[in-house]
């Protein structure tokens, strides 16, 4: 929003939301096509790898160098 020209912040916000909704819609369609083509059994290893990667990235991003919890 800070890079938007003066008075254009509402337009930029609505375009951002539109792009988000489009991405969510396309990801659902892509997932449906992948399930139809490969089946759930073949996609399970990929889903496992992505879930482990997401957990690892979440842990890595949340770690602190001083040893304290991120929540404290």
Description of the structure:
The protein has helices spanning 9-38, 40-62. It has 72 residues and is mainly α. The mean pLDDT is 86. It has two helices and no strands. It is flat and about 50 Å long.
Question: In terms of topology, how is this protein built?
Answer:
Elements: H1 9-38, H2 40-62
Helix pairs in contact: 1-2
Summarize the structure.
The chain is mainly alpha-helical. It is built from two helices and no strands. It is flat and about 50 Å long.
List keywords for this structure.
72 residues; mainly alpha; 2 helices; flat
Instruction: Give Rg in angstroms.
Output: 19 Å
Main sheet characteristics: none
Helix content: over 70%
**Computed structural class:** mainly alpha
Strand content: under 5%
């Amino acid at each position: 929003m800070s890079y938007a020209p003066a008075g254009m912040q509402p337009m930029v916000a609505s375009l951002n939301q539109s792009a988000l909704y489009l991405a969510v819609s396309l990801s659902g369609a892509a997932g449906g096509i992948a399930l139809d083509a490969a089946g759930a059994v073949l996609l399970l290893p990929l889903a496992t790898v992505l879930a482990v990667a997401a957990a690892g990235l979440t842990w890595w991003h949340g770690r602190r160098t001083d040893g304290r919890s991120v929540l404290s």
